[in-house]
Amino acid sequence: MLTVCGASSASTGAVAKFVNHPSNAMKTFLTALSLFVATLSHAQTFKVAALHPLIGDLARQVGGQRVEVVDMLKPGGDIHHFEPTARDLQAMKGSVLILASGKHLESYLDNLRDSVGTVPVVEVGRTIPSIKIQPGSELFMCCPAHSAGGIDPHWWHSAENMQRAAKVIADEFIKIDPAGKDAYKANADAARSKLAALKAWAQQQISLISRSDRKLVTGHAAFSYFCKEFGFKSIPILGLGREDEASAQYVAQAVQMIRENNIRAAFAEDQANPKILKEIVRETGVKLGKDLVADGTSPEAHTFEAMLKHNVEAIVAALKP
After folding, report:
1. Which of 131, 73, 59 is nearest to 106 (CA)?
2. Exposure string (b/e) for 93-103, b if CB count within 10 Å is 16 or more?
3. Read out DSSP for 268-314?
4. Which range, 33-47, 141-155, 246-260, 300-314, is most confident?
5. Residues 222 and 118 in one domain
6. Residue partners of 179: CB distance under 8 A and separation at least 6
7. What domain range is 260 assigned to?
8. Does the pTM exceed 0.85?
């Protein structure tokens, strides 16, 4: 029973009635108060722009409800030719951070920095160890001469690298929103645990392929981080970009290498012209595997989980005995 000092029993009863059975005015006030609290909670979020869908997905996992992430490069887009338009810059408006992949993938970053002024542009992959494409490397069975010495920018084909990226993103979010430190760290830990489980699943699936058959013939040099993580030798037919062209001499060398090493299959890539791969398949008689997701922007696979599962299943189906 609610009691009020010095009040009569009648007035006490009125107060209790008001508390236990609020009037319409009281209900309206409570509703407005709840909306106000919700507005304050929403106001604590901040906006981040991501220049690659894989980075955007990871940023959502790390940011949770405290961060609004907008994707600049949409699923189905081409990372090698994308450059933000005036409309994209308008969509970035209000962002306090821009997340890029890095490793020279986005050649437009200097211009973008000029356009966004003081908004920081963070290259998530900058501190992640790079792989150079070069002849003589234990990772590459051969490689086009025009790619020698080039850095493979597709670092997100590695679960371990994505784990590193989760920490990089969490650290950047904490700089902006120190009050969310515990949440960002917990979300990053959860993302890393999920990535570790995905890697373990992939290793189990790939164990169905004998080590002698772990040779990956692909359209362009986009899978070196995948090959390093899962014990494959890489044979890219083209260079780093889809627009690269393979000479007749190099195609002939690739055909010879495929025959000498009893390679079982070759893989074209989504969003890329499979003409050269089909020519090699006809020449060698190997299988043409299901297209791999090379750049992480496939409409059907633009998260790391979806991309890895698609690629592992396609590779295992074509290379296992």
Report:
1. 73
2. eebbbbbbbbb
3. EETTS--HHHHHHHHHH--EEEEEE--SS-BTTB-SHHHHHHHHHHH
4. 300-314
5. no
6. 44
7. 206-319
8. no
